[in-house]
Specification:
This protein is α+β, with helices and mostly antiparallel strands. The protein is 26% helix and 34% strand.
Amino acid sequence: MREFGGTAPTGRGILPGVIIREATRADWPAIWPFLRQIVAAGDTFTWPRDITADEARTWWLKEPPGRTVVAVDADGTVLGTAETHPNQAGPGSHIANAGFMVDPRHSGRGIGRALGEHVIAQARADGYRALQYNAVVATNTRAVGLWKSLGFEIVGTVPEAFRHAELGYVDLLVMYLKL
């Protein structure tokens, strides 16, 4: 049986000048603007493009055993965020799932990689046996490349499962990392 609440990685040292810490409700006003922008773009995330702030907050700020973290710089600016939770209930709860959002104004600084490394370490500490991403948009080549570089493999492709805002129907990838 998996136990939750293992020793959390601090996030310090993963990326100079950036700290990854547990998110609080007070972080939501900093998360919402870039989360809304990313979801509304309709090219990387499977949420409704017109999601409300209240719906998004409920979906993103996880209750235990889920977790939500933020990457912040020295002045406290939220640069990105990630959430983890059991991929399935009951007998499938030993596999984690996660979602990631990096503020586009801070793209290319390694925030996504730092969040990915943190989530992998946290999932191990929490006793998960693997991470499974159910819906990586195949045309999101930066994310696919990042996850592959962190050891994930593509274990399945769901043809035309994502309705991309510009490209129409594109594939979703199922990616997996054994912990």
